[in-house]
Amino acid sequence: MTIKQNIDPEEIQKFDEIANAWWDEEGDFKPLHQINPLRVNFIKERINLRGKKVLDVGCGGGILSESLASLGAEVTAIDASEKTINIAKAHARKVRSPVTYLHTTTEDILSNKSNHKFDVITCLEMLEHVPDPSQTLNEFSSLLTPKGDLFISTINRNPRSYLFAVIGAEYILNLLPRGTHDYSKFIKPSEISRWIRSSNLVLKETIGLSYNPITDTYWLGKDVAVNYMMYIKKENELD
To answer: What pLDDT score does 236 carry?
Structure first.
């Protein structure tokens, strides 16, 4: 089975250029280090990770992957950037993390007919960087076991998210490198809800991520206008 590669070479190049900064907690990826505990807690409060086969898609340098592995999950982490994966592998060796890092895509996994199935898939801050996020969600459904769990996070598309996630984060507060995000690729929760319904998936919960630039703190809450996270489950095909 051949599946259309759902990657944007310009996006890969963009992250290649800053790959060495992944584990600098005061560098380009500082916000990801700051919000990682919030995301990990959101996941572990909803499912028991111990012994679960987890696929972390768009894993970057492995910030989330290593945290999930530390909770007892059997983590396979993938990214389309070879340079980024090499950074993740090096860090895993340094801290003796058991994460398996692969330079591959969900398309390749499915095309290889390996029959790999995962109990949990995580995909945080990646959907807004692929040409067709609906295809990616459909692939997640194919890779999940029946009743499997999916966690995603992305950025809403509206004037406020443009002001905060692009102008504010990249040009005023310098939280992220300029050009990190393309506003046209931001995704409304209603769009994801429509795509997951057609992919045999069920939305269980949506929660927002907010930021206070004065106190430099993040928290999860009801406001999904900018960043948000979703907990989704795979339906049993026999239901």
So the answer is: 67
Find, among 187, 43, 62, the residue nearest to 121 by Cα.
43
Kindly tell me if the per-residue pLDDT of 237 is higher than 90.
Answer: no
Looking at residue 14, what is its pLDDT?
A: 85
Kind of pairing between the strands at 74-79 and 144-155 = unpaired
- Rounded CA-CA distance 176/132 in Å is 24
Share of the chain above pLDDT 90, in %: 80
Q: DSSP characters for 86-128?
A: HHHHHHHHHHT---EEEE--HHHHHHTT----EEEEEEES-GG
> What backbone phi and psi angles, to 5 degrees, belong to 195?
-65, -40
Distances in whole angstroms, Cα of residue 203 to Cα of each of 72, 192, 197, 234: 25, 9, 8, 9
Q: Give the span between the Cα atoms of 142 and 140, in whole angstroms.
A: 5
C-beta neighbour count of 207 within 10 angstroms: 17
The overall pTM is greater than 0.85: yes
Closest CA to 56 of 77, 42, 38, 32: 77
* Main-chain phi, psi angles of 33, to 5 degrees: -65, -35
pLDDT tens digit string along 6-17?
Answer: 988 888 998 888
Rounded (to 5) percent helix, strand, coil in the chain: 40, 25, 35
**CA separation for the pair 68, 54 (Å, rounded):** 8
In the chain, what are the domains? 9-234 (3.40.50.150)
Q: Do 233 and 150 form a contact (C-beta atoms < 8 A)? A: yes
